Amino acid sequence: METIGSKPVGLKGRLAGVIMNLIHASQYKKIIQKYLVENIDTPDELSVLDIGCGGGKVINIFSSLIKKVKIFGIDHSPDMVNLSKKVNKNGINNGMIEIVQGDVKKLPYPNDSFNIVTAFDTISFWNDFNDSINEIKRVLKQDGIFFIVNGYPKVGTKWYDFVKFKNDSEYRAFLTRNGFKEINLVIEKNTIIIKALK
User: Fold this and answer.
1) How far is CA 132 from the centre of its chain?
2) How are strands ordered across the β-sheet holding 46-51?
3) Which of 60, 72, 117, 138 is the one with CA 20 to 30 A from 106?
4) How many domains does the structure of the chain reveal?
5) Rounded to whole angstroms, how far apart are CA atoms 24 and 37?
6) What is the pTM of this model?
7) Contacts of 79 (CB under 8 A, 6+ apart)
């Protein structure tokens, strides 16, 4: 699955996207509700970017939980972009959702565009952490939230070998080194949830 997840294309990639949507839907909804929606002051219109939007479930959840929100999704797989657009057809039609193909290393958005940038189970697939984190900082508004949700597997498992950051200290050091502040980390059921401010 880690190979398919890095660049989900073709029938296998589309199937992986559908399966991931089904597997993660309930967990992601609870996380977004508990750690973001209940703890943010909503301005006139919140702007959210989901990096590596995959099958589009995170975008769909945001649009169902927050009324005044403009959501953008980006994924480097055209097949995932197409699936995400299907999942979020209504939001796209009413102008509240935009989904494009692109790369985290070169985000097609102006500086200071978003209140929240999210990375749900995608950070381990980045192939250039310096460029990627610089782009996220560039498009985040001042005091904007970078919200990471990622697998936090046990030592000795194949998933532990796969993930780029092996423990919460490594995540914290990476974010601190790149200028993020007020870094809050929570570990729940082999998942790490991180909220950091620009």
Assistant:
1) 13
2) 97-101, 69-75, 46-51, 114-120, 140-151, 191-197, 181-188
3) 60
4) 1
5) 18
6) 0.88
7) 8, 9, 10, 13, 14, 17
| Residue 61 near residue 91, CB atoms below 8 Å | no
Structure tokens given for 179: 């200028």
Nearest to 104 by CA among 163, 175, 51, 171: 51
pLDDT, tens digit, 9 for 90 and up, residues 83-133? 999 999 999 999 999 999 999 999 999 999 999 999 999 999 898 999 999
Give the CATH number for residue 131: 3.40.50.150
DSSP string, the chain: -HHHHHS--HHHHHHHHHHHHHHHHHHHHHHHHHHTGGG----SSEEEEEET-TTSHHHHHHHHH-SSEEEEEEES-HHHHHHHHHHTHHHHHTTSEEEEE-BTTB--S-TT-EEEEEEES-GGG-S-HHHHHHHHHHHEEEEEEEEEEEE-PPTTSHHHHH-S--SHHHHHHHHHHTT-EEEEEEEETTEEEEEEE-
